[in-house]
Amino acid sequence: MPDTPVARTAARVRALSQVDDLAELDARVSVCSACARLVAWREEVAVTKRASFADQPYWGRPVPGWGVSQPRIVVVGLAPAANGANRTGRVFTGDSSGDWLFASLHRVGLASQATSVHAGDGQSLLGTRIVAAVRCAPPANKPTPAERDTCAPWIEREIELVAHKLQVVVTLGAFGWAAALRSLRDAGFSIPKPSPKFGHAQEVVLTGGSGSVTLLGCYHPSQHNTFTGRLTPAMLDWVFTRAKDLAGL
Fold it and tell me: Is the pLDDT of residue 7 over 90?
């Protein structure tokens, strides 16, 4: 890797990520300050707040993964929403994308509740963990390539720590698909060449030292996709039903 400022920062993050305990990894994620633009944005949003949440405290920090500690299914998203997980401190919680995601997980039997509104709402997952490829809310929901690469060691280490029981990785969008491929490669899984392309309901079986994992693509439940009908509840349910069946849950 070339010796650049981004590479040096990513190396420092990678060193911090080298722990063997998932709870410790989550704790270290939550205090990361490696990307100055993301730190400034997440904290600005936490101070200015959306008017409808003006009376609520904001998390305003990186958002760790959430769910069971030994998952058979991992769901990979893009990044926390500025007034969603950046407010609630729990991934996909408190925004419209999360409303779609958790409603589907509940319908197929992978979540205890149909909604996820705040970190203490009693929601729980069955055999599933949800993570974001980038852990801080980015302006316009678009992290830069440098921010993506700097943050990558967190998801890569998380996948390594849960790989021994992992059966399925569901990626929400092409960004999550690419992050999952990199993370699974680093966890010891063989990636075909050319690299598999993202698509809704696309399946790729990857083999590694701990067995095999199915990579399963899904359109992201963003408002752009749900408002236009590109993604429907039935399409989302199909993906998670397939993931549940593949994982034996």
Answer: no
What is the bridge-based pairing of β-strands 168-172 and 73-77?
A: parallel
Task: Please give the Cα distance from 92 to 106 (Å, whole number).
Answer: 14
Instruction: List b or e across 89-104, with b for residues whose CB sees 16 or more CB atoms inside 10 angstroms.
Output: bbbbbbbebbbbbbbb
- State how far the Cα of 226 lies from the Cα of 214, in Å rounded to an integer: 25
Q: Check whether 1 has a pLDDT greater than 80.
A: no
Write down all domains in the chain, each with its CATH number in brackets: 5-247 (3.40.470.10)
C-alpha to C-alpha distances, 90 to 56, 62, 153, 162, nearest whole angstrom: 15, 10, 20, 19
CB 145 within 8 A of CB 134: no
DSSP letter at 190 equals -
Q: Is pLDDT above 80 for 188?
A: yes
Write down the residue that tokens 């399925």 correspond to.
168
**How many other β-carbons are positioned within 10 Å of the β-carbon of residue 54?**
8
Give the span between the Cα atoms of 228 and 135, in whole angstroms. 27
- 129 closest CA partner among 168, 87, 81: 168
